[in-house]
Structures are given as C-alpha cells and as structure tokens.
## 1
Amino acid sequence: MNEPGIRTAFKTDIGRRQENEDSYLALNAAELGGRADALLIVADGMGGRASGQVASRLAVSSVRDAFLSGAVADDLSSSLREGLRTANSKVFGEASTKAELQGMGTTCSAAAIKGGKAFFAHLGDSRIYLLRDGAILRLTEDHSFVAEKVRTGELTEEQARQSRFRNVITRAVGLEADCQPAVGSVDLAQGDVLLLCSDGLTGPVPDNQIADILCGSSDVDEACDRLVKTALKNGGSDNVTVVLAVFGTRTSVKRRAVKKEPKRISWVIPLLIGLLLGLGIGALPGYLIFLKPTPKQVVAEKPTVSATVYGDPVPLTYEPLQQGFLALDEAERLNVVDTQARRMVVDGNGKTLATFPARGTFKPVKHTPTQMAAADTDGNLYVSDPVGKKILKFGKDGLFLCVIGEGKLMLPEALAVDKNGSVFVIDGGRLKVIRPKIGEQKEPSP
C-alpha cells in the first residue's frame, strides 16, 4: 500500500511450524482517519497452535481499535501504550475464562508515524528497527531472559542466539493482569526505513545481514520477500513475519553508503565554554588546547582511564526522559528522570532501586536541562555529540583522545561517568552504558 511519502509492505510465512501464530497489520492515513500517517503492528503468539493464534490476533485488533478510538495526541507513544494495555486485559481475560486458552500470550510491537516522527511501544521480543544511511539501529530491547544476560554482559549476542533459554520471555501481552509496555519515539529523516518483525527473523538472521538485505533490495516488497527467505534459508523453523515502512519520497529501500565524516570538533567550543564555566571543571585556557594538532602519545604501561578501549553500548532501561537529567550520586547510583516525571534510582546494571514521585520537582518538557558533558576521576572530559551520534573524549590537558560509541548510538544526550570509566548516556530515550574493555587500551586518536 502507498501513502504520499510513506511506502509499506509486509510478508509472513509459516516456516516449519504446523500453524502460523504470528499476526500483523499495516494501515495508511486514510484507513486511520488522519490520526496518523501509518500504523504498523507485529505480534507473535505463544501457548501453542490455536491459543497462540487467538492471542496474537486479539492483540493486534485490540491495539488497532484502541488507537483508533483514543484521543488524538501529539505523543502517540501514549496511545500505543494504552493500546497494548487494553490488549493485555483482553488476552488475559480470555485466557482466564476459557480452559482451552489458558497460558496463552503474545509479544507485540507497534509503531505509528505522524508528522515526520515514529512513535512505538512493545512487549516481548518482536523487534522494531530503524535503518538510516546504511546503518541499522534497534529501537526496542527484547524483554527476554537472554536479553537481560546480554545487557549485564553475561552473554554475547551470539551466545544469546544459541541459548536454549532464548525463547523465555519476561514481559508479554496477556501473561499477567497488568503490564508495563516500553515506549519511545524517534524523528525520521528522508529515506528512513522502519522494520517490525517477529523473532522468526531475528533468530536466524543477524542485524548486519538484515541491514545488507534492506540496503540491497530494489523496493519494499522485494526486501520483505528476501528477509523471509533468508530466515528460512538460515535454518529458521519458526513463523517469520516482517512489516516495512519507508519514510520519504524515495521509491527504493536501497541506501547510500555511509560516508565517514572528518572529525570536526569546532562546534563543541561554545558548549564547552558554557559547561566549564558553569561546572568549574577547570580553567578555560587549558581546555582550548585541543584546537592545536594532537600529537601521538605513548600509552603508559599501567592502564589508565585515558587509554581505555570501550565496548559497545548496552541498554539498561527504557523509560528515561529524552533530553532529561542524569547524574551519579555518592554511592555511584544513577539518578534519572523517567517519562512519567518520576525520579528513578538505578544501579550500574540498569536495575531500578527506587522510584520517587516527582511532585512538581521535575517536569517532562522538552527544555528540561540536559547535562551534555561529564568528567572522570582522571579529569578527562566526555562530551555528547548528538549530531555526529557519538561521544567525544578529551584529556585533562584539553587534547582530543578518542571517539566513543560511533556508529552505535542514535541520539546521545545527557551523560555521566563513574569511577571505573563506564559512560552512562541517555540515547534516544533509553539509558545505555558503554563499559571499558578490561586490559585493552590503545593510543589516543589524533
């Protein structure tokens, strides 16, 4: 189906199962009565055969109906979240009253596009991806046992894909009387691609291969077809479902190659001046030294925070306020403001230790102060670069040291650094940590 500026396509396959427990939906602006430019949903039923089908179909129809009947709001994430909660009540109610449906549940991921922005909500391990300029980003984090292990560093992505516990879901529609959907939003650029899919795709097909298929397909229909066929070719036995939407006027999913931009740090100067004067990190002249050419530096024999090699960003929580507040207290606990204007106290693994009502202390508005720079115990300075989608690191003498998280971040904003050199950053509405790789170091970049 086509909408001015938006092209969508979808495909599902039973795989090697006897029944297809996946359900999906893609509606355009006309079908939505102008509430949004597109509504996309994917659900993967659980409970076996008939009950799984019932759960996924009921979830999709419930989210659709709740979205269409709800009040039109600027933040459609709230509408999607309420839709998932409505779906949860209906699926849980059906399972509670009908013996043949007991134990049924379903994952569900939903996205709505309106005014150049994508809003999304999800429960379970059906994912939503964004492909931009050849790079693929996960907009959702799996609610599963192995995903939690990956977030804490106990498993790698590959180990999680092979684990016998990979199908253990920690949050889903209909498993309990109440649910807590994760929500978020992202501004869209011309040519962006949104992909919603069940784990029948992401189990056998890694993210980089998904990106290659999307970049190498001539249109959205071909992309859907290739994604499903690749999942089956790679040994996938589960139902596989994909829903695609291309934002913008392009008629092809194909993406231009990612161009490596030269490292430009001149824009940081005004930001640093204001931050350094306000935070009292050090004398201004010392931090302006980074304008001079950076010489190669010899790495000290004893590892230091300055010479650390960093791992990939690992998501911790999904509810921090975008453009919000982030700080470490004396006990190295993170203090964050969530999307409901509550203050959350979170440990280094993302576990919520306490939540306090805002009571007017914080307000979830776009001009909430954002701490875009932080210093570590060695005096090194870290600065968020939301335009370049990376974090810049400078030594205490002002010399540029390295880039952190390049190609792995979506919209880095407020950040904090603990005594171990771990960088905590609010990235596109999610709190992430980038930890140093123990024992690994390299010469600072010029």
Note: The chain has nine helices and 25 strands.
## 2
Amino acid sequence: MKKRMILPLILLTLLLAAPSIQAADTYTVVRVSTPLIFSGAATVRLGEFSPQLRPSLQAEIGVGGGRLAVGYDNIGLKRIGYGLKATLLHTWLEPLDVDRDQSFLGLEAELSVRRLLVNVGGFRRVSAGDDDWLVSAGLGFIF
C-alpha cells in the first residue's frame, strides 16, 4: 500500500464511525514495547456500552515511534479481554531493533487480564528502508 493512500483510509474509517462516537467509551494504556520503547495509548471504543467486542480506534505515541490502529476489542470490560487491530506504525528517534523514519502496516493482537495488557503484532514495511518485517511485543497497564 502506498504511503499516500494511508491518510485517506484513516479519514474514511473515522467518517464511517462518526455516528457511533456519541456512544463511545475510552481507556488509556502506559506500555513498554518494541520498537516504541515507552509509550502511552488512548483508545476510543465505539457503540453502546457492552462487554462484547466493539469497534475501536487507537492512537499511541512513544519514544521510538507511534501507531494508529483500527479494530475490535473488549479490553478492560471483563476480567479477561482481547482484541485484534490493523495497525499503522511509524518509527522516529531511536526505536528498538529497527531503523527510524520507517512505516509498517500489520496486525496486532491484545490480551488483557484485569489491568494488565499484553500485545503482539507482525508488520510489513510500506515505506523506503532496510527492514522488511517487524515483530512487535509489549506489556502495559490500563487506566
């Protein structure tokens, strides 16, 4: 996918989700992960409040980069929650195990137990750079 197609795709997703934003709930996460090192994330879960899987939009910013994710989750709503998200990840400054100023697109799975959140994802580079594939893993705390 070309870099110029990513922003319109994100905007289209936000426009389609607009009617559900009024019934949204949110959660935040502080996370230690690769390649972002230390980061904070905010998630908006759309639709009526229920412990079932719901559409979610997530933005995360960290020392080594940032990510935008769209998917489904029920993180923090039950004792054990899970989610699956399509994620765009971009690196900057000094990310772990990858060069800076690269963009990756991939899938990420999340699992929460009470306030503890574990994530793992696989990504393919979509910009110029040396690293073709990236595996990301992290451990976070939900607020």
Note: The CA atoms of residues 43 and 107 lie 16 Å apart.
## 3
Amino acid sequence: MLERPFANTETLRLADIHSLAIFYTPLDARFDRITRLAQKALDVPVAAIALCHQGKLWFKSMQGWNIHELEISSSFCARTLAQGELVIVADTRLDAQFRQHPLVQGAPHFRFYAGLPIRDQNGVVVGTLAVYDRQPRQVSAAEVQALRDLGELAQREFLTAELCDAQAQIISKLDMARRNAMIDPLTRIWNRGAAEKLLVVAMEQAEQEDSGLAVCMLDVDHFKEINDGSGHQTGDQVLRKVAASLVSNVRDGDAVCRYGGDEFLVILQRISQEEAEWIIRRIRERLAEFPFRTRSSQLVVSISAGMAWRAPGRHMSAERLVELADQALYRAKQTARTGPRAGIGAA
C-alpha cells in the first residue's frame, strides 16, 4: 500500500472540510454531472469525486463502481493526495507501487488511473477527482485538459457547496454521525427519518413565506417481479438507479428521500402546481429513456407518481400532505394497469 504522508495535515483538512458542510450529505446532482462528464470525456467506465476523512476516502459522487468509502491506504488516490498534483498511471501492472495492489490483482482489476487533487480556499488538498479503466491506456493532451477543467469545476462546487432551504437547516444542526444516520446506505439519499424532519421544516418555511410546497410520492412499477425474476441484487441496482435519476432531474436544493422499500418521497419548495407536475413528468420520461441492463437482458424501469401541492395561504399539516400524495399515488397505480401514469392530488 501507499504509506507516504500527506502534504497537508489531517487537522487542517478536517477543519476545512467541516466548514464546507458537505460531509455525509446525500447524492448531489452537481457532482454527479461532473463525474458523468469525466466518464464521457475520457471514455472510461469509472469516475469519482472523493473527500478524505480520518484515513478514508468518502465518495461524494461515483459512476460505474458501487462503493461509498475506501481506506486511503488501499486506494490509488493516496498518491494524488500525497503529491498534491495530477497523477496518471498508464498501466498499473507496470507501476512499482500499484502492480501488487488489491484493486489491480483483484476486482475491479483496474489497469489505468488518473487523479487530480481538489483543494479548499486555503489551498489544502481535501479530495480528488479520479478516473479509472480496466484497460491500460495513454491519455492525450486534450484529455488531460478536460480532466483539469472538470477538476476546476468540482473544486468550485465544493467551495460554493451549500444545501439550501430545509436541508440546510437540518445539516447545520447535526454532527457528521447524526447526518450519516439519516442517509439511506443503499441509495445514498435521505432516509425516511430525514424525510419526516425535512418536511416539517419545509412546511414551516412555506407558511412563513406564504409559498407553494409540493410532496411527490413515487414507487417502482412491478418491483416485486424484478426482485423475483432477476434477484435482489438486481433489485438493489434498480433502486440505486432510480434514486440517482431522481436526484438528477429535480432542482438543486430539492430533497429526495427513500421512504421505504421501493418508495421514494420528493419535497419541492417554492413551487407552483404546474412546475411540480412538469418535474414529475420529466422524472418519469428520463428514467424510461435508458433501459437498465442486467447480465442477461434489459429492464425498462418505470415509476408511478402521486403529488400533493400546498397552495400559498393554505394551512395543512405535513402528515396530511403526505397522505394526499400517497392517495394520488394509489390512484395512479389503480388506473394504470396497462401502463403507469402520474396521479395528481392538489390541496
């Protein structure tokens, strides 16, 4: 493994990361966009943005590899963190430090790595943007520039990263351990307990501002058949895909939560009924555009949705709003035996 000490102290790094308030927070579409672009720009199967904390890399965004944390000493990024500069390993099996690495000798059998440091406002290295391939490769000057450009974008997002509205209030009042306990471990979005707290805060803000608020309840169509026919591992992958799609297709700051099983809840603040309905349609259409690939076939994953909207000036409890959204979802399921449709329950 790589034992070289980091160029900056862990104390400084932790202090700066904590000041960003982005540790142990849910999936964030801003960072997922960057890693997807990195995948495309360098034509690699895996791209990630990670922060370092107490000897571990915590992945803020990951494409192509189902992992959330990794010991720094067991990662390729240790070299990037130590050197504080772009590191490119064209063939890991020809590299003295990497050739016996567990990620090279065993799954996922990485043969190529490129990692760029991400710094805070004081120049302290707090994380990395990295890409990986299972084949050795050379990178062109244009690809290096693309990686540097994306690294700059990732760094800028970290420096300006602030969850807004109800999420900001929840995050600011909790330490990392309590924040982490509010994130669903499978999908990396808020869990049901967090959803209930977020909705109470959102309702309070809507009443104070006299603004519109929508709650959307969504579930995966025929999820039991997916589990029974393709296995629970495939079912888990479908849930992760749906969660990531929800995060990508709502607005920055909207709260996406796993409410239980294959059911999701989305909180949309400061929104009209028409805007909320449009977001639901976009979520369902985008998800249907990309079939889910298994080892033996393709699954067309679809969702049904129900929405309840609190009009400005209308007094209503959080429980009632969820109840109305749940009723709308039930109506959508009942009237869509031949093809799911979104149900709307406006209040």
Note: Residues 1-21, 338-347 have pLDDT under 50 and may be disordered.
## 4
Amino acid sequence: MTRRSLLLSAAAYTRLEVSEPHMGTRVTIKLDTRDPARGEAAIGRAFARIHDLDLRLSNYQPESEANRFDARRVSADMRPPWELAERLRAETDGRFDVRRTALFDLWRAARKSGVLPAASAIARAQATDEGRVDLGGIAKGYAGDEALRVLRQNGETRALVAISGDLVAGDGQWRVLLEMVNRTVILRRRAASTSGDTEQYLLFDGQRYSHIVDPLTGLGLTNGVVASVVAPSGMLADALATVVCLLGVREGLRVARRYGAVVYI
C-alpha cells in the first residue's frame, strides 16, 4: 500500500492518494476531501469493495462466481456486467462474448509460449462451453464504478479511481492523459478506458496478434486498432473500448455513440 497527501489550500481541500494491489494490477484512488479522516475511511471501504468484486468476478479466483457461472442464478454483484455483456454480444453479432473462455485461455497460453495456436486447437476452443465467463473486458471498469459509489455513500464525491487503464471520475476536474492515443481529456462524472495491442500481443512469423480475440474467427485481432473511450460509466468505457477494436472503426463508433460515448482512435 502506498499513500500520499497534499494540502490544496486554495480550495480548502486535502488531496489523498492511496494505491493497493487488486485485480492483478495496481489500483489508485485520488480523493479531494475537506475531512482527511473521513476520506481515509471512505477509501478503505472503496478498496474493500474492489477486493470483494475481485473474489467474485475474477477467473484467477478458483471459487469465484465467474468460474462457476450459472446464468439462471446470477448474483446482484454479477448482474450489471453480465447484462451489459449480453446486450453487447447481441449488438456485435457475437464478437463481444464473455462466455468464450476456452478460446481466451488458448490465446493467453499462446502469448506466453510465443507459438501460434493450431487451427484444430482453435476450432476445439470455439466449440467448447466450459460453464465459465471471462469478464476481463468489463470487470475493472465496473469495479471502478462501484468504488466511486462507495466513496459517495461515505460523503466523498471528488474522486478519481484508476484501475490499470480504466479511469472513473466523480466530481471535480480530473485531467488525464490517454497515452495510447496521445490525448489529454478532462473527466468529470465520466470514465475512460483504452484497449488495443500495444502492450499485450503475440508476434509470430511477422504478424502481430492482439490479446483481444474475435470469437467468430478464433484469432487474435490483427487490425491494429487502438481505441480510448470516454463514457458515462467505467463499465461502459471498459467494454466499449474492446468493442471498437473488435468491430473496427466505423461499426465500433456506431455502437459506442449509441451509449453516449466519445471515441479516440
């Protein structure tokens, strides 16, 4: 855990900044508060909420709901990301599909080994239903939303929650750099997320395959699209950034704009 505090005397606010490891990455909460003790307590509760969601939603937690998924019995915590995922699956003709875990696992292993999966292995993975869901393209944004909700419930509204490349902002003016698309934006009650192949990919025989996999082709994307999305919620921004990469610029923009999002390519 790392902590920083900064007195913003002109506005009579104190800036608190706390980082903890959650969801396989570093999570940072920045908070401008008039009551540092209250702010510290609120941040602690927000991190506790992120931890609880990680236990329920992560495929790296053996007993998680994601690993023992039953669409007939979806918990209150799972329902928001699951319902959005299903809506986007329909709108993308199956390209955004959190149920294709065997295919995602196959490409995750391929990135580690540096070897392209065989066509037969891809076909088997496409046909496999493991009774799991992989919320990697939506869970971090959702967790950011929930952390911000907990902060608000505890009297703190001027906050920025950063979970890897997913940013969720409350009140105030939060200036952030979307590095992959080289854009600086001001977030206020909005969220931003970036997807693309700049960090996670398989390079094989001169071809670059993204960590984002198209379930219809069974292949990691090769279109080279990198997209940052600013949307009304972290969950939407997270999912729509992946959708734009999957569909390509024209169709991706069409879907994103339907949800009130702004896209930078």
Note: The mean pLDDT is 94.
